[in-house]
Specification:
Methane Monooxygenase Hydroxylase, Chain G, domain 1; 59% helix; mainly alpha; binds protoporphyrin IX containing FE; single chain; disordered N terminus; globular
């Protein structure tokens, strides 16, 4: 028995005789929790660059969002893989998990949503040219949504592992490509040009794909493909909300100043936020 365990036993008063067992205290090495979670690593990755007490939450919120991006990429890769195997239930389950994760991701804007310019200025210069624009995991999310662009690999030339992962993601079919291939296999009129498209290019909306979704939405709403369409619409909506929450937080924190990443800032983000995710799922609604 370890010293700590003895201590707990000594502390136990007679009326604790029937008390529920207490957790184990003595481990030969690091705790099994640490071995699994690596909390010691995770909670020592906060290398602050200013003396401002508000910088901690800025950095941790960004790190938390990176972790959510990682989970969501995992879910969408699971969903894409399942669709390629014609396993719609597994794909929908992964998409639904990602919807709850996207909600948690979006809720994590709260600590940063009301930053004033003076508060943000207290540590902004310490960020140098660092910008979320350089987030490779966010870029993988955008690639999975069909927002492909080879130029987005350029910032990562100096990080071989990140570059290789991003390059692989660029050349893999997006989640939406897998959806459209499945719809074609199920007999829906997705054009050959869409099925054979160069998947490393940004997805361009197609009137025929819009007609497929119109037909599915006009039919049985409880059907497997209509439910897949709704899960994808939930994802699209929550991505749009993330972009807009980011835009509003940025407008509050820095007005129309240029971004640390070198862009025009809010004006550039406004254009990005307008991009439609799974475009035909939205336009088809006008025809149902
Ligand atoms: C309130 C604090 C924030 C401000 C003022 C801000 C500002 C900006 C600005 C101005 C840009 C445009 C690129 C540039 O010139 O830098 C940008 C891009 C971006 N930021 Fe933030 N940001 C904030 C918080 C965050 C957080 C917490 C994340 C989480 C990772 C994040 C992720 C991103 C991403 C992913 C982009 C690229 C978006 C795209 O490619 O469409 N930002 N941010």
């Amino acid at each position: 028995m370890s010293h700590d365990a003895e201590h707990v036993a000594e502390d136990a008063t007679p009326q604790d005789a029937d008390a529920p067992a207490t957790p184990h205290l003595d481990f030969a090495g690091t705790t099994p929790y640490e071995d699994y979670v690596q909390a010691d690593v995770l909670t020592h990755l906060q290398h602050l660059r200013s003396d401002d007490p508000g910088e901690m939450v800025f950095l941790v919120t960004t790190q938390v969002m990176e972790l959510w991006f990682t989970v969501i990429v995992h879910e969408w890769e699971t969903a894409g893989g399942a669709l390629a195997q014609d396993d719609v239930p597994t794909a929908v389950a992964a998409l639904k998990r990602s919807v709850r994760e996207l909600q948690a991701l979006n809720d994590s804007w709260r600590p940063l949503a009301q930053l004033t310019p003076a508060q943000f200025n207290s540590y902004r210069s310490a960020l140098g040219e660092g910008s979320g624009f350089q987030s490779a995991m966010y870029r993988r999310m955008e690639f999975l949504l069909g927002e492909k662009s080879a130029s987005m690999l350029v910032p990562h030339r100096g990080a071989p592992r990140v570059y290789a992962e991003l390059e692989k993601a660029l050349h893999q079919p997006s989640l939406y490509d897998e959806v459209l291939r499945l719809l074609a296999r199920r007999g829906h009129g997705v054009p050959r040009a869409v099925l054979d498209r160069d998947v490393s290019q940004r997805y361009v909306p197609s009137p025929e794909v819009e007609a497929v979704w119109t037909e599915l939405y006009a039919g049985d709403e409880s059907g497997e493909l209509a439910r897949l369409g709704e899960a994808l619409t939930d994802v699209a909506e929550l991505i749009w909300r993330w972009r807009n929450d980011h835009l509003v937080a940025t407008r509050r924190a820095m007005g129309a100043k240029t971004g640390t990443g070198g862009s025009a800032g809010v004006a550039w983000l406004e254009k990005r936020a307008q991009k439609n995710v799974f475009p035909e799922l939205w336009t088809a609604r006008s025809h149902v």
